Amino acid sequence: MSRILDQRILLFIISFSASLQSTKVLSEWKKCGDLECEKAMSRVQATADYSGPDCRYLNFKTGEEIIVYSKLSRENENLWAGSKGKDFGYFPRDAVKTEEVLIREEVEVLTKETDFLCLHEDKYSFE
Question: How far, CA to CA in Å, does 82 sit from each of 3, 35, 47, 120?
Answer without folding.
Answer: 45, 16, 15, 15
